[in-house]
């Protein structure tokens, strides 16, 4: 069923995080043949992709079990390179590139980190917060290394806890928003005792580390590797020695594949209706790629998308699923507002600070009055290997630019492989 | 025209920026109007190959002169212009193509363009990664490659320093008897107007025989040294010259960045905004067929642009008699980067009443044109 230009699957899900898995189960429960593609070695997405399944939270283990029981096929290390149409994708199945046909498509492509540039952010040892989490999940041990985590929002908590569990000497956790914002957000969670309990558990895990609000990185220093981080901390400048700095400022939906398919984007997220349908017929989207909202709401969206893609009539607006969806979207709106980067973070880069790592474009090379496309064509910003995945969210925050328009192929495949998948078998390749 | 002509140039692509700068350097008062930003039109999608083509004697003459002018310009370009005299190596797949290459040497020589025949052994010494079994090639060492949008930017900045008035994000709605009307409202008067609006020129000058000819390109990651010359198949002549049908040809360019730029395709599909996957596949298959090492090169992005094409494959350069004081500098199809310098020279000579360096007659915009472009 996988690839080989053969018969289509009923439902193809891109992304094996919570949204992708729950949509797969929902569709499979309705008798559909479901294939899930994911870049990772293991299913679970950013949050549940542990080396050791036993170490996962119970809800995650339950979902992985349900996926297996439902007969869903998961293709790991599989990357979508291109969309020929909503019902035919070009996929790199771990080195074998092929076309994959489907009757319905669900995008559950998650989110990426927003890295805001500051002097020294490209030093080795400086990573994103999600990046640090991923490193730990893939086995990095921190054995007494001094770690500083600086960023914003609820994501700080699980990563801080994970760093301690991985042996880090966690010296500081810095939250950029003021205490009153963080406190008001926490109050808003009171209606969700499980979230509060989880947060307390995480805080307990890093109880020996100061968690400071109104605190952000202004620079990283070091000779060949980060050795010291400069912070603005409640109005004062401080310096902390460290071996690792995890710094980022929130998440941005991954919309490249949706854009290739022609789906409308609202702000930075894929536009969906109440059944998670995108603006392109036959394509649904669920989870962070439709707005960053966390795993619980992503599960609800996935289930709605899976049912819709399997042909269920849209459920009642009052159903508990819809209520969970709505509260998830409300949560996403609050996250986006409460934890938006403060203006100081948009002015940290000096003329010399690199904005685009791939092409070595510095802040001083850029006039914020240009459009994204103008800056790209004039300075090569965003033209490199990552095609603006890293500098795009930063430039959107710093200059108000649109993201780089994605073009195939996604993910830089080998030329020969991609070409092979594009050529129709009945076309000889001759002119 | 009056002694200090004042001229509006519409369009800051390679052609318009070069023309505005040339006019200013010749003493004209110039305003350059651009709807978006310099280099954002076809110029920003082009391969940037500065190449002498010889489909016709007229084309060869203009190419040869234009390339000489690029050579003069090169030293003053910023590094971001990525000007690199890497030369063109025309690949002969078989003996017939090799013979055709031999014939071109004489016509090149007549225009002072150096070219040398390369036998099979020489070919693989120059480009070891080409597939085995090719017959040979034709090396044109004076050809170059560049990064067009950065050059359009640099020329605009230089023009500004020569007192050219630059109006960016200013769209011309239409021509008036004495100048232009702007889309945002208002008019601007001038003694002369040069339309260098590329594929959009017919919107300003109805009846101008230019149609968009779409072309796809693909850029790789950095593989310094994989190829050293711009490589083009001599068989390219067939594919570039059947006007109607979609076609692909092997056309590979080493970039200063160490990347390779893979071309190219040609189609007449209007301003269609979709990637043509099947054509792209055929284009890449053709490229990997000539250079199997490309199989192992990662590709970052594909895109397309629109060549401003005419049915007789010559640009439109000169006055447009139906409208007084309107000059056309457009319709260069796949050679607008190369021909921008020579085009500017012809326009400058025309407007200032001096002797043009190349006979402008074959490029008169109102010459009789084969039917195809008009129909499209
Ligand atoms: C010599 C050379 C080398 C290059 N090297 C590289 C390189 O190394 N890496 C690289 O990435 N690129 C490279 N470029 C390519 C550059 O990205 C392209 O030339 C160019 O800007 C055209 O690209 P594009 O159409 O894909 O994207 P863009 O230039 O970004 O244009 C996207 C277009 O889509 C339009 N658009 C956006 N949204 C919509 C919508 N919803 N509906 C309709 N239209 C929409 C925009 O208005 C815009 O016109 C190179 C170019 C040249 C000339
Ligand atoms: C895929 C591809 C590869 C190519 N490779 C090569 C190559 O290797 N070598 C080569 O020599 N040529 C190449 N070309 C051809 C070359 O790109 C064009 O011939 C050339 O860029 C045309 O330049 P131009 O200045 O006439 O047009 P453009 O660059 O399109 O400039 C026209 C400008 O006018 C502006 N404009 C239009 N209408 C208005 C208005 N009403 N008001 C204000 N401004 C307006 C536009 O915004 C634009 O900036 C290639 C083209 C393509 C598509």
Quick one: CATH superfamily of the largest domain in chain B?
Answer: FAD/NAD(P)-binding domain
Secondary-structure arrangement, i.e. CATH architecture of the largest domain in chain A: 3-Layer(bba) Sandwich
Annotated CATH topology of the largest domain in chain A = FAD/NAD(P)-binding domain
| Low-pLDDT segments, ≥5 res of chain B | none
In percent terms, what proportion of residues of chain A is strand? 15-25%
CATH class of the largest domain in chain B: Alpha Beta
Q: Terminal Cα separation of chain A, in Å?
A: 32 Å
Q: Overall pLDDT of chain B, averaged?
A: 94
Radius of gyration of chain A: 22 Å
User: What letter string, H or E per element, gives the SSE order of chain B?
Assistant: EHEEHEHEHEEHEEEEEHEEHEEHEEEHH
The CATH topology of the largest domain in chain B comes to FAD/NAD(P)-binding domain
The share of residues in extended strands of chain B comes to: 25-35%
Helix amount of chain A? 25-40%
The molecules bound to the chains, other than polymers, are: flavin-adenine dinucleotide
What is the terminal separation of chain B in angstroms? 35 Å
In CATH, the homologous superfamily of the largest domain in chain A goes by the name FAD/NAD(P)-binding domain
The number of distinct helices of chain B, counting runs of at least 4 residues, comes to 10
Number of strands of chain A: 21
Structure description:
The complex is a heterodimer of chains A (431) and B (376). With 431 residues, chain A is an alpha/beta fold. Chain A folds into 3 domains: 194 residues, FAD/NAD(P)-binding domain, CATH 3.50.50; 143 residues, 3-Layer(bba) Sandwich (FAD/NAD(P)-binding domain), CATH 3.50.50; 50 residues, no CATH class. In chain A, the strands form 6 sheets. In chain A, strands 1, 2, 3, 4, 5, 6 and 19 form a 7-stranded mixed sheet that branches. Chain A has a 5-stranded parallel sheet with strand order 8-15-9-10-11. Chain A has a 3-stranded antiparallel sheet with strand order 12-13-14, with no helix packed on it. The relative contact order of chain A is 0.15. The C terminus of chain A is likely disordered. In chain B, strands 5-6-4-14-15-16-13-17 form an 8-stranded mixed sheet. Chain B has a 6-stranded mixed sheet with strand order 8-2-1-12-19-18, covered by helices on one side. Classes of the chains: A alpha/beta (431), B alpha/beta (376). Chains A and B meet through helix 11 and helix 13 of A and helix 5, strand 13, strand 15, helix 8 and strand 17 of B. One flavin-adenine dinucleotide binds next to helix 1, strand 13, strand 17 and helix 9 of chain B.
């Amino acid at each position: 069923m996988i690839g080989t230009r053969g018969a289509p699957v009923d439902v193809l899900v891109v992304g094996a995080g919570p949204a992708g898995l729950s949509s797969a189960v929902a569709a499979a429960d309705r008798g559909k043949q479901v294939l899930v593609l994911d870049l990772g070695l293991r299913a679970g997405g950013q949050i549940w992709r542990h080396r050791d399944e036993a170490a996962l939270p119970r809800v995650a283990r339950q979902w992985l079990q349900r996926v297996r029981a439902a007969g869903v096929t998961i293709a790991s290390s599989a990357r979508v390179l291109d969309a020929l149409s909503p019902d035919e994708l070009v996929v790199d199945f771990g080195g074998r590139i092929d076309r994959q046909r489907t009757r319905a498509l669900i995008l559950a492509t998650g989110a990426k980190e927003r890295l805001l540039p500051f002097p020294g952010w490209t030093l080795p040892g400086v990573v994103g917060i999600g990046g640090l989490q991923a490193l730990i999940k893939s086995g990095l041990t921190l054995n007494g290394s001094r770690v500083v985590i600086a960023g914003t929002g609820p994501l700080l908590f699980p990563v801080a806890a994970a760093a301690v569990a991985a042996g880090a000497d966690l010296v500081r956790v810095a939250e950029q928003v003021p205490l009153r914002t963080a406190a008001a957000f926490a109050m808003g969670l009171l209606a969700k005792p499980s979230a509060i309990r989880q947060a307390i558990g995480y805080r307990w895990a890093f109880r020996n580390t100061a968690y400071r609000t109104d605190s952000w990185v202004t620079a990283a220093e070091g000779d060949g590797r980060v050795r010291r981080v400069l912070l603005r901390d409640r109005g004062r400048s401080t310096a902390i020695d460290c071996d690792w700095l995890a710094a980022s400022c929130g998440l941005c939906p991954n919309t490249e594949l949706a854009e290739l398919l022609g789906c409308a984007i609202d702000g930075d997220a894929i536009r969906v209706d109440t059944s998670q349908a995108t603006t392109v017929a036959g394509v649904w989207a669920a989870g962070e790629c439709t707005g960053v909202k966390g795993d619980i709401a992503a599960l609800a969206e996935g289930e709605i998308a899976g049912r819709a893609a399997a042909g269920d009539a849209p459920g009642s607006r009052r159903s508990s699923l819809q209520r969970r969806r709505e509260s998830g979207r409300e949560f996403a709106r609050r996250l986006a507002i409460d934890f938006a980067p403060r203006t100081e973070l948009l002015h940290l880069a000096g003329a010399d600070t690199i904005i685009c790592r791939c092409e070595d474009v510095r802040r001083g090379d850029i006039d914020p009055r240009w459009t994204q496309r103008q800056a790209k064509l004039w300075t090569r910003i965003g033209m490199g290997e990552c095609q603006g995945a890293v500098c795009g969210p930063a430039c959107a925050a710093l200059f108000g630019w649109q993201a780089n328009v994605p073009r195939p192929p996604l993910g830089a495949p080998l030329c020969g492989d991609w070409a092979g998948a594009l050529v129709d078998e009945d076309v000889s390749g001759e002119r | 025209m009056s002694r200090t002509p004042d001229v509006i140039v519409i369009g800051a692509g390679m052609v318009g920026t070069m023309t505005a700068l040339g006019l200013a350097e010749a003493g004209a008062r110039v305003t350059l109007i651009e709807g978006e930003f310099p280099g954002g039109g076809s110029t920003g999608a082009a391969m940037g190959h500065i190449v002498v083509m010889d489909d016709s004697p007229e084309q060869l003459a203009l190419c040869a002169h234009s390339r000489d002018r690029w050579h003069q310009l090169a030293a003053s370009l910023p590094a971001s212009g990525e000007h690199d005299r890497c030369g063109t190596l025309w690949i002969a797949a078989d003996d017939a193509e090799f013979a055709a290459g031999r014939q071109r040497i004489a016509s090149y020589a007549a225009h002072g363009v150096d070219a040398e025949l390369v036998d099979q052994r020489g070919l693989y010494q120059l480009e070891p990664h080409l597939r085995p079994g090719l017959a040979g090639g034709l090396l044109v060492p004076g050809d170059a490659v560049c990064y067009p949008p950065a050059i359009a930017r640099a020329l605009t900045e230089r023009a500004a320093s020569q007192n050219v008035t630059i109006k960016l994000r200013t769209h011309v709605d239409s021509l008036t008897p004495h100048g232009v009307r702007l889309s945002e409202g208002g008019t601007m008067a001038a003694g002369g107007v040069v339309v260098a609006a590329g594929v959009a020129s017919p919107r300003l000058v109805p009846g101008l025989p230019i149609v968009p000819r779409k072309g796809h390109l693909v850029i790789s990651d950095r593989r310094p040294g994989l190829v050293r010359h711009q490589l083009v198949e001599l068989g390219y002549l067939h594919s570039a010259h059947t006007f109607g049908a979609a076609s692909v040809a092997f056309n590979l360019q080493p970039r200063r960045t160490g990347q390779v730029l893979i071309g190219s395709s040609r189609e007449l599909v209007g301003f269609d905004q979709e990637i043509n996957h099947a054509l792209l596949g055929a284009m890449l298959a053709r490229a990997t067929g000539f250079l199997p090492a490309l199989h192992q090169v990662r590709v970052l992005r594909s895109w397309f642009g629109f060549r401003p094409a005419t049915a007789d494959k010559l640009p439109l350069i000169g006055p447009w008699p139906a409208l007084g004081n309107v000059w056309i500098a457009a319709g260069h199809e796949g050679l607008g980067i190369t021909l921008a310098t020579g085009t500017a020279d012809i326009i400058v000579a025309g407007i200032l009443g001096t002797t043009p360096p190349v006979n402008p007659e074959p490029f008169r915009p109102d010459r009789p044109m084969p039917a195809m472009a008009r129909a499209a």
